[in-house]
Recover the amino acids of this structure.
């Protein structure tokens, strides 16, 4: 997705507002006044500097480019934010947000909701006090939207996920860096999502894809390609805060009840529990659904990846990931649960998962404290690509 470029582009710099409108005393008032009054088909350029923002900002408009100045030279600091919630809320169509730094928000950093054709480029969002449960949940958080691209961004220290896409059609997460979060990149109940060329390290979980009940849409069709995932063994500091508190650290990619996922050409190294985990929804401690819902993972392909071997498991165990107590490391852990309840069709193992013929160490979970190496793999080989 390319940048949105207004048909009649008029660049307006906040420098004029900061100098002319002396009646507005706070950085928040100056910036929010501009965002509320800017006409459509405009580019808003914020000048260099550190701006202290004490309340939530919002941009509710169409056909807008909001940009900072230079390389991380425009910093929106929410360290003194008095209101809960996100730092910057965006709603609209044909919007580009780029070249900004957003720090220390009470809630999510940058939230995009009910929008279409949005590009988030070269944005840095995080919490300077480090990995704390009191940090905001999500650094960059598009939800209930269509055609969203997140690229060239940096996120850190989010108490749930650095980069998130939820209940969204046609999302792309490309060429970003995400670290020191509970989850580096999370995709939840979204369709046609492409995750490529990201560097994800020192999170509790590198990438997590899930399809869970009770949301406005179900997820399917995710491609995870050519990402570097390493050392995602950070202590899970979101414990007891949300459902992510149940999840263990030490996992490169975690797939929960995912349908139609392609894990291809990724580089994995040094994950204390497993490089890839595949689990059924009913293997989680999440609430059980009373609606029609298929809790099985389905049509997952794992091919042409590089797995660096780590022999010993050293991570602490939590809840349903107590199967990590095994003395040897496996590239793939799969709970091997297949059910026909909740309206789900009967599935065979090869309908759930397949992988290529390269050496890959796989174990299925026989119980919470017992792993069985999967030796009969021929029927699980992917068809020739």
């Amino acid at each position: 997705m390319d940048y949105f470029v207004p048909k009649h582009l008029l660049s307006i710099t906040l420098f004029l507002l900061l100098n002319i409108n002396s009646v507005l005393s706070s950085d928040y008032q100056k910036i929010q006044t501009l965002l509320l009054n800017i006409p459509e088909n405009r580019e808003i350029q914020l000048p260099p500097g550190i701006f202290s923002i004490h309340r939530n900002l919002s941009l509710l408009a169409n056909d807008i480019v909001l940009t900072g100045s230079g390389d991380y030279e425009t910093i929106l600091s929410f360290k003194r934010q008095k209101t809960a919630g996100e730092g910057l809320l965006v709603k609209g169509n044909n919007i580009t947000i780029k070249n900004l730094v957003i720090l220390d928000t009470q809630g999510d950093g940058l939230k995009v909701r009910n929008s279409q054709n949005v590009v988030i480029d070269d944005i840095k969002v995080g919490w300077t006090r480090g990995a704390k449960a009191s940090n905001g949940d999500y650094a960059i958080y598009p939800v209930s939207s269509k055609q969203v691209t997140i690229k060239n961004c940096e996120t850190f220290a989010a108490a749930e996920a650095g980069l998130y896409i939820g209940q969204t059609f046609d999302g792309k997460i490309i060429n970003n860096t995400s670290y020191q979060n509970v989850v580096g990149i999370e995709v939840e109940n979204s369709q046609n999502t492409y995750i490529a060329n990201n560097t994800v390290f020192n999170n509790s979980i590198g990438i997590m894809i899930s399809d869970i009940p009770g949301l406005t849409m179900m997820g399917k069709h995710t491609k995870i390609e050519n990402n570097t995932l390493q050392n995602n063994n950070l202590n899970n500091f979101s414990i007891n805060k949300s459902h992510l508190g149940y999840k263990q650290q030490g996992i490169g990619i975690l797939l929960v009840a995912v349908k139609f996922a392609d894990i291809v050409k990724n580089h994995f190294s040094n994950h204390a529990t497993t490089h890839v985990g595949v689990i059924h929804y009913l293997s989680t401690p999440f609430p059980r659904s009373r609606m029609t819902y298929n809790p099985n993972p389905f049509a997952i392909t794992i091919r042409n990846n590089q797995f660096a071997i780590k022999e010993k498991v050293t991570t602490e165990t939590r809840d349903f990931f107590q199967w990590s107590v095994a003395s040897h490391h496996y590239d793939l852990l799969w709970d091997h649960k297949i059910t026909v309840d909740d309206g789900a069709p009967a599935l065979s193992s090869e309908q759930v998962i397949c992988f290529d013929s390269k050496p890959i160490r796989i174990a299925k979970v026989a119980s919470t404290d017992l792993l069985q190496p999967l030796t009969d793999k021929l029927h699980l080989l992917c068809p020739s690509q």
Summary: The chain has a mean pLDDT of 84. DSSP finds three helices and 32 strands in the chain.
